Amino acid sequence: MQHNTGDSRQRKRRILFTELEVLLYEYDLAGINFGSNPDEYAPEVRAIYTRLNLESTEEEMQSITYEIFVNYFSKLCVPPKDDPVYTELSREMWILWQRYIKQGLAGPSVYDYIA
């Protein structure tokens, strides 16, 4: 039986999405991890994911993450922009993103994650 390339690509996109979601849940920048809501950061992952492209840098990822969190939660509810947590988080996200790109995928599609 032949594997459908589209299905494989979609599966890999979903894996990356889930991995990013887990990272945001672990770092819990907005303090909404109550231990029973693992999909709470799905909208933020979706927003971050759609802004990434093959030319994105680690620094851009850090800036995008901060901007998304301020947009979703406000400056009062998230760590300040210069907090080292953004550097640590974006470094881990960058590693995942680079691994995803090296798999030869052209880029994410937000439509893969709309329920």
Can you give a write-up of this model?
With 115 residues, the protein is mainly alpha-helical. The protein has one domain. Helices cover 59% and strands 0% of the residues. The chain has four helices and no strands. The chain has helices spanning 5-27, 42-51, 58-73, 84-102. The radius of gyration is 14 Å and the shape is globular. The model is unreliable at 110-115 (pLDDT under 50).
Structure summary:
It is globular, with a radius of gyration of 14 Å. The protein contains 4 helices and no strands. The chain has helices spanning 5-27, 42-51, 58-73, 84-102.
**How much helix, percentage-wise, in residues?**
55-70%
The number of distinct helices, counting runs of at least 4 residues, comes to: 4
Name the poorly predicted regions.
Answer: 110-115
Radius of gyration: 14 Å
> Any idea how many domains?
1
Task: Name the beta content range.
Answer: under 5%
Can you count the beta strands? 0
| Category from helices, strands and their pairing | mainly alpha
Quaternary state of this entry equals single chain
N-to-C SSE string, H for helix and E for strand = HHHH
Terminal CA distance: 28 Å
Specify the biggest β-sheet: none
On the 0 to 100 scale, the average pLDDT is 85
Report the principal-axis shape.
Answer: globular
List the keywords.
globular; mainly alpha; disordered C terminus; single chain; 4 helices; 115 residues
List the helices and strands and how they pair.
Blueprint: H1 5-27, H2 42-51, H3 58-73, H4 84-102
